[in-house]
Write a structure and sequence with these properties.
The structure holds two protein chains of two kinds.
Chain A (H helix, E strand, L loop, with lengths): L6 H23 L31 H37 L1 H15 L3 H11 L5 H28 L2 H8 L4 H37 L10 H11 L5 H28 L1 H7 L10
Chain B lengths: L2 H29 L4 H6 L5 H10 L6 H13 L5 E2 L7 E2 H36 L4 H15 L2 H15 L17 H27 L2 H8 L4 H30 L1 H8 L4 H10 L3 H29 L1 H8 L1
Antiparallel strand pairs in B: 1-2
Helix pairs in contact in B: 1-13, 5-6, 5-8, 5-10, 6-8, 7-8, 7-11, 8-10, 10-13, 11-12, 12-13, 13-14
The chains are: A mainly alpha, B mainly alpha.
């Protein structure tokens, strides 16, 4: 670690860590199951029996919120993993090997990035009649990899000029060896930062799809809870407040984590923000 | 590279993207399980009725013929015919023309609000760097970035329409200017975070530059330097992002319109999906995609045109 650990990083780690823990452990320890109905207590506000209240079917909001957290985690990590994986591979091919495959990859990213992501995801969902979690991850990754591939390609192009890569090449290291053992570790930092933001984007994408009623079917999602709550919020605001709050805290946590990670890994980027030779205001 | 060539290259890129959109939509609509003709006519229809409708929907013949059928629908400006929305068979284009103004009005109003928030916030944060105003502005920006409109939307609705009933609830009259107030504030706030951050960064860069030092040495007031010299230079990249956000708002219309129960092209698309109306889905996706692509391409061009440094950098 170079110097001080950045504050946003610590804050982001704490917030997301707490949420991840809640999503993993929570559903096992709550009094109610997400699929369990308490028919005598319908559309109630927070009480001792139901900490965050119940919805119109008597489902416990806290239990469903935690179940939604699991889905968000699954979709976020799944989409980020898949799209960053594809992006890394494509970006390495385009940046390191170039040539025709590289050109085709870059033109494909052009087309994908010229298209609103949610619209393409929507088309995939429209085509599959009964979307599951896998379909949603796939549909979100379909456009998300393009941005990662571009970033990786740009990074690879700069690293390829560096002396240690040239030296490795002179010593007869194979292309694959250089690409994986020399280039990849060098670009890992910025890619990790982007992967963090990719998680936030994927969670938001899934929530948007579920809010539109086009998310994974048969599971509880924060977006779905928001949609359900938006209809009911005049009678019982606790559903909107808790689902919205969860999404908000999660997004803030991940954004802090990404910002902090970037400051930590790239002191130059941080320096432009917290420059010691700061420009004093006119006051 | 000459200006003309860069425009031509950009235009070609846009064209390829548009062709990509049309092809993707063509494949997607045909990959949907179930026969759209059966869904429309039900079990009782005669074979000749089916054949007739199939021909009118360009669903007979080879894939190549179907594709030219779709393209001809685009070329004659009708974008195909909807058999489910609007009662009688209606050209998709007239449905879109009816709905698009609502989407555009909301997008423009939201961008105005976003700029009204982001300009003072970003500029003050830069001028008072690392002081409490800056910390506050950055915290607000982080919250704005992290708050999706479908979270803040229902919350704002609850707060303003129920707790303090001062703004019209969205269901009232969606064509009135009043009904734009709440949605555009919510979306504008969500957009303002990124803009304020960017403006802060670019303004800081300008504040550190030599010409500011020179202006100060000449004895110009701080206010004058910031408003007349720093702001015009710092705001340029922000305007680009604003253009990109306009494009994103058209694509994101689906969510925003659903939050506030407003009509628009997003609502039309969702209705089309719910009714499994291929022509509507196809038409809406292509119109949104075209608008998005054209705005993005236009912003890119305008940027090079406004800022000569970009042109020279590209030439190098």
């Amino acid at each position: 670690m170079r110097g001080r650990v950045s504050q946003p990083l610590v804050a982001g780690l704490l917030v997301t860590g707490a949420l991840v823990l809640a999503a993993i452990v929570g559903p096992e320890v709550t009094a109610w199951r997400p699929g369990e109905r308490d028919v005598d207590h319908v559309l109630e506000g927070p009480s001792q029996r139901h900490v965050l209240g119940t919805d119109e079917d008597g489902f416990d909001t806290l239990a469903r919120l935690l179940a939604g957290g699991r889905l968000a985690l699954m979709v976020g990590l799944g989409t980020a993993g898949l799209s960053v994986g594809i992006g890394l591979f494509m970006g390495l091919v385009a940046g390191w090997y170039g040539g025709y495959p590289g050109r085709i990859i870059m033109r494909t990213t052009d087309v994908l990035m010229a298209f609103p992501g949610i619209l393409l995801a929507l088309l995939v969902i429209f085509v599959t009649d009964d979307p599951g979690v896998g379909t949603v991850i796939l549909s979100l990754s379909l456009t998300a990899w393009a941005g990662h591939a571009r970033l990786v390609r740009g990074l690879v192009l700069t690293v390829a000029e560096r002396d240690f890569v040239v030296a490795a090449r002179c010593m007869g290291a194979s292309n694959t060896r250089i690409a994986t053992l020399y280039v990849l570790p060098e670009i890992a930092g910025p890619v990790a930062v982007q992967a963090t933001f990719a998680i936030a984007g994927a969670v938001l994408g899934e929530a948007s799809l579920s809010f539109l009623g086009l998310g994974p079917q048969g599971v509880v999602s924060w977006g779905g809870l928001l949609e359900q709550g938006a209809v009911l919020f005049l009678k019982s605001p606790s559903l909107v407040l808790s689902a919205g709050g969860a999404l908000l805290v999660f997004q803030t946590g991940i954004n802090l984590l990404g910002d902090g990670l970037r400051d930590q890994l790239d002191p130059r980027a941080a320096a432009t923000v917290h420059s010691p030779a700061r420009a004093r205001g006119p006051a | 590279m000459s200006r003309l060539r860069s425009i031509a290259r950009r235009g070609l890129g846009t064209f390829v993207a548009l062709a990509g959109i049309v092809i993707v939509v063509f494949i997607a609509v045909r990959a949907v399980p179930g026969d759209p003709v059966d869904q429309l006519l039900g079990d009782q229809a005669t074979d000749s009725d089916r054949a007739q409708l199939r021909a009118r929907m360009h669903l007979d013949g080879s894939l190549a013929q179907q594709f030219t059928g779709m393209v001809s629908d685009f070329a004659d400006g009708t974008l195909g015919t909807s058999y489910t929305l609007g009662g009688a068979p209606t050209p998709v284009m007239s449905l879109i023309v009816e709905n698009l103004p609502h989407t555009v009005a909301l997008a423009v109003a939201s961008l105005l609000v976003a700029m009204m928030i982001a300009l003072p916030m970003g500029l003050l944060a830069a001028v008072f760097q690392d002081r409490s105003v800056d910390h506050l502005a950055r915290a607000v920006a982080l919250i704005a970035i992290s708050t999706p409109a479908f979270v803040s939307g229902p919350l704002a609705l609850y707060a303003l329409a129920v707790v303090f009933p001062i703004v019209p609830t969205p269901a009232h009259d969606s064509s009135s200017l009043q009904s734009l107030v709440l949605p555009s504030c919510v979306i504008g706030f969500a957009l303002s975070g990124r803009l304020a951050r960017l403006l802060r960064a670019t303004a800081l860069e300008q504040l550190r530059s030599d010409y500011v030092l020179a202006a100060r040495a000449r004895g110009l007031s701080g206010r004058h330097i910031v408003t007349r010299h720093v702001l015009p230079n710092a705001v340029l990249p922000v305007l680009t992002v604003l253009g990109l956000q306009l494009a994103a708002l058209l694509g994101g219309a689906l969510v925003t319109e659903k939050i506030f129960g407003r009509p628009g092209i997003g609502t039309l698309l969702l209705d089309g999906i719910a009714a499994r109306d291929h022509a509507v889905v196809q038409g809406c996706v292509v119109v949104i995609g075209v608008a998005y692509t054209v705005i993005n391409g236009g912003v890119d061009l305008a940027y090079g045109w406004i800022d000569p440094r970009i042109r020279t950098e590209r030439q190098a």
